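Structure first, sequence second, as always.
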């Protein structure tokens, strides 16, 4: 946009009336040059003086050469018009041209210095302060004078409104609906300045269940996604009573992190705290809720667990030993023949997993044992015993976890042997 830039001039000067109310308006971009005409009249012109009309008139320039201009940016064009160079925002205002002929005439001009907003418009949607409805905002700042806006529904182009802030009616709040804002400014830009905002209801993600130990703490979390505008998150015990949302207290602590929320329950008790919790998210477009089951359990007693595991272990050993003695030697001979390979394999795996030096010797022992057994099939009873003895060694040396696994394995093994033994007995010899 080079050169003089008078975009709009309203020739509203009504000839002969001399009305100061209805003047010309010149809208010019900042940094440009402008020429303000002293009325739209033909014929001979008298000497003119230009004033700026602020609270009181300020002299700018006169055709009487004995009065120098207020600024070198001002000059007369064609002896009457005011030429202003390099406009700044401060030049915006009302100007008056005084012409002295055989009578004195006044011609007002309203100069508006304009500039378009420097960036593209930004659309957003928020819950209004009264929380009653949604408000669209078309942010397109930095322009002068203010741009104009047009909100439409997309697709379809149904006009929603023409202001920067646009309140939506409840009937317009449907999932996934898009709204488009088109910004217009008197100085452009040439291409359409617009933005689109889509409203959508919240989606929720959380764990389906949590466990708390009596007297302990537990934190339930819930994450909202896809909500536009952002959703309000509440924690509830009874979904049919949204007004009875859980409030922060000594027992409950609620933290919001972005579009996520955490509910921490302190000092869990079974009567009070076990049950369903609901995370509820609402943003006027939609409401979603997700339930989390909280179970409250007796606290873990490590000593008790160890004692239980050890006694179960001893009981299992006693049973196995008893069975072996009861069915010996037939059972051991048969089982030895049928399952020796498998049994020995089990022992090897267990001992291998220990990886301790002292176990190495044991392994060698077993290998020797195995060789012996292979050489002489006469000692199946010994094999049986060794298998279990080594297993127990591994268990006792292992930690609690391994103990658990070992115990499980021992039980499975015992069951297997037991049922096998029964089968063997049932078979006719
Ligand atoms: C404004 O006028 C001055 C002097 O005539 C000229 O040098 C300058 O280029 C003009 N500026 C614009 C933006 O046209
Ligand atoms: C000046 O006035 C004449 C008639 O009154 C009109 O045709 C013309 O457009 C006007 N010029 C401007 C710049 O307003
Ligand atoms: C502008 O100033 C002139 C000179 O004082 C005055 O006569 C005129 O009424 C003023 N116009 C406005 C719009 O203030
Ligand atoms: C120019 O201004 C001076 C000083 O105010 C005045 O004496 C003179 O008469 C004026 N000349 C014209 C042509 O108005
Ligand atoms: C210029 O004058 C018009 C009416 O004559 C008025 O509406 C407008 O606010 C004035 N502008 C400034 C910057 O004073
Ligand atoms: C004012 O001047 C114009 C020409 O400039 C002339 O036609 C007109 O008669 C004059 N009016 C008076 C009252 O002198
Ligand atoms: C539960 O949280 C409270 C407060 O942060 C803390 O003092 C207490 O030690 C926690 N209890 C357990 C079992 O972690
Ligand atoms: C939830 O609240 C309603 C209304 O007070 C009540 O009828 C219902 O039994 C409550 N449900 C549960 C699970 O507490
Ligand atoms: C935890 O709750 C039990 C009853 O549910 C209460 O007796 C105890 O004082 C509470 N402890 C704390 C630290 O609040």
């Amino acid at each position: 946009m080079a050169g003089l830039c008078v975009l709009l001039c309203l020739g509203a000067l009504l000839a002969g009336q001399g009305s100061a109310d209805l003047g010309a308006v010149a809208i010019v971009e900042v940094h440009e040059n402008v020429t303000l005409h002293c009325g739209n009249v033909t014929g001979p012109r008298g000497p003119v003086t230009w004033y700026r009309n602020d609270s009181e008139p300020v002299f700018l320039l006169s055709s009487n050469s004995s009065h120098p201009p207020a600024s070198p940016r001002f000059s007369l064009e064609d002896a009457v018009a005011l030429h202003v160079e390099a406009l700044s925002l401060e030049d915006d205002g009302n100007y008056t041209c005084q012409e002295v002929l055989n009578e004195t005439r006044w011609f007002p001009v309203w100069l508006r210095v304009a500039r378009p907003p420097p960036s593209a418009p930004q659309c957003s949607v928020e819950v209004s302060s009264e929380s009653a409805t949604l408000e669209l905002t078309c942010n397109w700042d930095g322009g002068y004078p203010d741009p104009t806006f047009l909100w439409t529904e997309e697709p379809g182009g149904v006009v929603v409104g023409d202001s920067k802030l646009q309140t939506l009616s409840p009937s317009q709040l449907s999932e996934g609906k898009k709204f488009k804002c088109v910004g217009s400014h008197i100085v452009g830009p040439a291409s359409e300045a617009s933005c689109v905002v889509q409203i959508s209801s919240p989606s929720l993600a959380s764990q389906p269940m949590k466990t708390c130990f009596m007297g302990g703490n537990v934190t339930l979390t819930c994450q909202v996604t896809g909500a536009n505008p952002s959703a309000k998150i509440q924690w509830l015990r009874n979904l049919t009573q949204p007004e009875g949302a859980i409030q922060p207290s000594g027992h409950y602590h609620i933290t919001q992190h972005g579009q996520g929320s955490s509910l921490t329950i302190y000092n869990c008790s079974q009567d009070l705290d076990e049950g369903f919790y609901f995370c509820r998210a609402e943003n006027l477009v939609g409401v979603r809720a997700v339930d989390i089951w909280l179970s409250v359990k007796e606290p873990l007693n490590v000593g008790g667990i160890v004692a239980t595991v050890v006694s179960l272990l001893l009981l299992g050993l006693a049973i196995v030993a008893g069975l072996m003695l009861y069915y010996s030697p037939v059972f051991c001979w048969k089982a030895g023949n049928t399952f020796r390979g498998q049994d020995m394999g089990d022992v090897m795996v267990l001992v291998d997993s220990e990886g301790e030096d002292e176990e190495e010797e044991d392994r060698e022992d077993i290998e020797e044992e195995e060789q012996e057994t292979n050489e002489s099939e006469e000692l199946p009873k010994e094999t049986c015993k060794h298998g279990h003895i080594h297993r127990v060694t591994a268990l006792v040396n292992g930690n609690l976890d391994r103990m658990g696994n070992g115990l499980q394995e021992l039980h499975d093994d015992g069951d297997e042997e037991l049922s096998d033994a029964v089968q063997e007995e049932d078979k006719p010899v």
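Margin note: Residues 122-198 form a domain with the Immunoglobulin-like fold (CATH 2.60.40.10).
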